[in-house]
UniProtKB/TrEMBL annotation:
This is Transposase. Residues 194-276 form the Transposase IS116/IS110/IS902 C-terminal domain. It comes from the Bacteria. It comes from Pseudacidovorax intermedius. Transmembrane segments: none annotated.
Amino acid sequence: MSDSIFIGIDVSSQTLEVASSEQAKTWRLANDAGSIEQLVSQASALAPALVVLEATGGYEFEAACALQAVGLAVAVVNPRTARDFARAMGALAKTDALDARMLAAFARVLHQHPERERFVKPLADAELQQLQALVLRRRQLVQMLTSERQRLRLAHAAARPSIERVVEFLKQEIGDSEAEVATHVQRHHAQLAQALASVPGIGAASVAVLLAELPELGKLDRRRIAALVGVAPLNRDSGQMRGQRCIWGGRADVRRTLYMATLVAVRHNPALKACYARLLAAGKRKKVALVACMRKLLTMLNAIAKHGSVWDSTMHCA
């Protein structure tokens, strides 16, 4: 372990600040295609055990994919997690060079973590990258439509025609976007999509989000996939105190999709409907029961993806 090399990369829109665990000084590269090729060459020569980058609004995407493409283990971590680690190490100041060194130190710790695969995402191939982009664009359009509809409610009569035109335009764009997503899914993920869509409560939009943003589906056990998404209850105990369990972290977009799917499933999916009723009868609050059903639904989807099966109506709530 002492001979292993770890690399941390602080990412911004314009630059990449790179630190290696075996070097005292960091070095800076531009965040563009040519410099990323240079970074890949330098990192490959060092043969690091793990490379850690912060998630920086997508600016880290090209570098992370390029490093993974040459076989390097890459973890893209939440900036809050990285900053908490830096504070724990006594690094209260913040500069690009200091952040890069802290990420390299974090890489060493993370490499020893028994569940480090939660941080190391599978490499997105060209097809998956395209699906992720299409799903993201649909989400952006839906958010814009929601904003315009809210403005319409309070708008002066003079402004309403303009807003109504934008609303109609966005509806058309969303329809076109959904058609593009459906075509891509049918072309590249038809079998898995059909299997997932066989579960009552899971529609085309949910399938697209799961395929795009949870590529680990079917590759992890039920506990790890629940923790990855953020639907596993976390303990809050200390000494004699037993705190209330709650969910936290994980992939928010996937979790929101599961929540909406579960609202439908507890009415139309016989297994989840029975599970939800049983939990309510046991005195659980509605939101607690819904989260438990979210976790159950995710477990079902994970099993279907793992075994290549379809929905079985004989499934029951354990």
